[in-house]
Every structure is written in structure tokens, then in C-alpha cells.
Amino acid sequence: MTSSQPHVAANTSCFSVDSMDKLTRIMHEIHVEAGSGVYWEGDLADKLYYIRTGKVKCTKTNEDGKEFVMYLFREGDFMGQFDPYSDSRQSFTARAIEPCTIGVVLKSDLEMLLWQYGDLAVEFMKWMGLMHRLTQTKFRDLMLYGKPGALCSTIIRLANTFGKATPEGILITEKWTHAELADTIGAARESVNRMLAEWKREGAIDQRDGHLLITDLSYLQQICHCELCPKEICRL
Q1: Tens digit of pLDDT for each residue in 68-126?
Q2: Which of 74-88, 119-133, 148-162, 208-222 has the lowest mean pLDDT?
Q3: What DSSP character marks residue 12?
Q4: What is the spatial distance between Cα 57 and Cα 61, in angstroms, rounded to a whole number?
């Protein structure tokens, strides 16, 4: 996939400038090469990660070894999980898809901050709620309305994240291959090819120089039973 400037706020937008300053001061910085893991499913969940630069995808692997792309995190996003249990394990694998500079927050240091600053604690609860809703909606995409519903939802998320309004429709300014789309819904690339070809015949989507163009958003919304979530939730 090619890089493009996202059109939605980072998931840290629920933190005030003062709170982000406090969090930044307890971070230590690491550099991760493209293709390398930041953390792995099953690792001890004793850290949070703040993406200063770069892009990271979080994936979940099923029993058959099929990998699902669950999240795409970018500059300004927090990732990782924060549970009240000392032996909690990471539910996803995070892998850099371009060179990244990442701030690492130890759980023990974060707990100290949350004890000291009530405003930060409330904002952190909001962040946890946001991430919980993101996970809920991703599993909803995969489980309730089949592969067509999941693919429609992914395209709508792409539009919310990288969409640009044009006279012809919503142009997704970041290029995604059919194989990358397939990984987001756990489908074969050939299945994605067939669905996209059908929706193109129906006049719901088109392509411009390798970029997806949504020409009938309501058509896609009907297939995935879109709940019109805010863009902070309906994003990659």
C-alpha cells in the first residue's frame, strides 16, 4: 500500500495537550525497521506504544494460520492493550509496515501517572473505550454480514480515513491491492476480485489510476448494514 495523509484524527485526540505532555515524558524511544515486529500475540501486555513516525498493522491469527488485519495505526496513535491483570497477554501482533519511531510507555509508569492525575485517568478511560469500540466493530464486520459485508465496511473505513470528495464520488487516496483488502476480512484474493467486479457492474465503485472510487456509498452501506458510526470509530 502507498502512504497518504489520513483524514481522521489520531486515536489520542481524547487526550489534552497537558496529558500528552505527561505521557511523552515517561516514554523511551525505539526504532523499528519495516517488516519487523513491535510486539507479538501472546507477549506480556506490560507496555503501550505511541507511534511518533511510521505505520504499523495489527493482526490476529486464527487456528488455521489465517491472518486478519485488525488495525492500521499511524503517526499520533497509541496501540497495545492495558488490562488490570498483571499477567495479561497481547491479543494481536503488531508489525511495522514502514520504518517507525515509537515511544514506549511502561505499564508501571503509566499506573503511577493515573494515580497522580485524575484528568489523565478520565481521558485514558475514554481512550480505552474508543479502542474497545473499534475492536467490537471490527469483529462485527467479520462475523455478522459475511465477506461482502466485511469488505463493504472496510471500503467505507478506507473512505473515512483516506477519502477525498470528487465530482465522481469519494476517491480513496491511498492505494490498496486486492490482496491487502482480502487480508482485512480473512478472504481469498479471488473472492475480493469477484465482489469488487460485481459492485463495479452495479455502479457502486470504480477505479482511477489504481485508486478505489466510491460512486454509490449508500449501496455499500446497505450491504454491511452500516450503523453510521462516527469517523473516530469507522476508521482503519
Answers
A1: 888 899 999 999 988 776 678 898 999 999 999 999 999 999 999 999 999 999 999 99
A2: 74-88
A3: T
A4: 13
SS3 state of residue 51: strand
Burial group, residue 118, by CB count within 10 angstroms (0-12, 13-18, 19+): exposed
DSSP conformation letters of 78-121: EES---SSTT-B-SSEEEESS-EEEEEEEHHHHHHHHHH-HHHH
- Helix, strand, coil in percent for the chain, rounding step 5: 40, 25, 35
- The residues near 130 (Cβ < 8 Å, ≥ 6 apart) are 11, 14, 232, 233
Distance CA 208, CA 37 (A): 33
